[in-house]
Amino acid sequence: MSLLDTFVQVFEFDTRQADAAFESFRRSTDDMLADMRQAQQAAEAGAGGFGQFVQELATSLQAIAGGESLDIDVNIHDTQEKLVAVRTRICELETALATLDSQREQASLGLQDNGTIVTELTAQYDQLQGELNTLNGELDSLTDAEKKNVKAKEAVSAIVDVLQADYAQFVETMRTKAPDA
Prior knowledge:
Elements: H1 3-64, H2 80-177
């Protein structure tokens, strides 16, 4: 192999390596540009999505605030003053939410306490209802016994009336028919 053939092979080899490196660099650059475009699109979409998120957040916060107007301008180029105003309003709403959460928790605890009290009252009511049913049963028994007593008194009274009539007649008979002693 001659020196020229060797030089050509080395040159071609180096050229192929350089071409491959250049192609790789070009692809890498194209990939970087594509990634930058995607990042820009994502940032634009994110800014729009963020704007929509802030708008939805403002709507939700307005609903929580009881319909009080929230003047939040959704504009990416907000001034520092607007940002401070929004942050202040958010702090106020967070405070209101914390207060509402505390009140909700207290109401929940109150409901639990009320539930416990209602359970205790229900148990006492059931106990009293049971005692009332028992007393009503005893009253029915006593009423039946009283009815029997009334019938027995009537029977005894009738017997006494009959016996007294017989006794009176016996005494009369003894007076009239008895020998004088």
